[in-house]
Amino acid sequence: MKKIPFLLIAIALIAQGCMSTKFQASWKTPDFEEKAYSQVLVWGLSDNVANRSTVEDEVTHFLNLKGITTHSGADILPYDRKIIPKDQEVIKQKLIAKGYDAVLTIGLKDIKEETHYVQGTGYYNPMSYGYYGSFYGYNSYMYGSVYQPGYYSSTEYIYLETNVWDVESGKLIWSGQSKSTGQGSVDKTANAYARAVVTELIKEGILVPTK
């Protein structure tokens, strides 16, 4: 019988609770030309003020770390985004007046719960008495090696759509869909998403770091 170290099981369980975000698909305008945007506004499309502000702030933080001047929508936009003028030209002029040449929007596309089976641990393989040496050896050996039954576990996944818009032309420059695990706090999920989206945007050449 092969003993399964308890530490490895613990690490596996902890890993299941770690926050992660991966981009599943992305699109870039065919006529895209790399451009160093001077100031980016991060705009969360949600009525949940607290969650929206958390995500905006995290993305803003990591973009600024890369030397990309960025502001959170929470800093300059009203809490009730519904009162923002609907006239596109009015919005455009306000953004230009404040020095923004790109807007990064974040919208919730879906939340899904997926169920999967976690295999049990341990198996039976009779050994001779001499393998354990005595009752005491057997007791200490088996204490951490007894069979643990399998079980079903559910994981919540959050799907976000991220778009980057050019302020002057109003054109969509880049769009991506990400999948994040939602097992932890909003802060941890937002942090994982922000790291992933900043990495993706720089890798695609959409935003150019100066640091």
Layout of strands and helices, then pairs:
Blueprint: H1 6-16, E1 21-28, E2 40-45, H2 49-65, E3 70-72, H3 73-76, H4 88-97, E4 102-118, H5 129-132, H6 135-143, E5 151-166, E6 172-181, H7 186-203
Parallel strand pairs: 2-3, 2-4
Antiparallel strand pairs: 1-6, 4-5, 5-6
Helix pairs in contact: 2-7
Give a quick set of tags describing it.
211 residues, alpha/beta, Rossmann fold, 6-stranded mixed β-sheet, 6 strands
Task: Describe, in plain words, how this protein is organized in 3D.
The chain is an alpha/beta fold. The relative contact order is 0.24. It has 7 helices and 6 strands; from the N terminus they run H-E-E-H-E-H-H-E-H-H-E-E-H. Helix 2 packs across helix 7. It starts with 5 loop residues before the first helix and ends in an 8-residue tail after the last helix. The protein is globular. The N terminus is likely disordered. It has a single domain, classed as Rossmann fold (3-Layer(aba) Sandwich), CATH 3.40.50.10610. A 6-stranded mixed β-sheet has the order 1-6-5-4-2-3. It is 35% helix and 28% strand.
Short synopsis of the structure:
By secondary structure, this protein is α/β, with parallel strands linked by helices. It has helices spanning 6-16, 49-65, 73-76, 88-97, 129-132, 135-143, 186-203, and strands at 21-28, 40-45, 70-72, 102-118, 151-166, 172-181. It has a single domain (1-8, 28-211), classed as Rossmann fold, CATH 3.40.50.
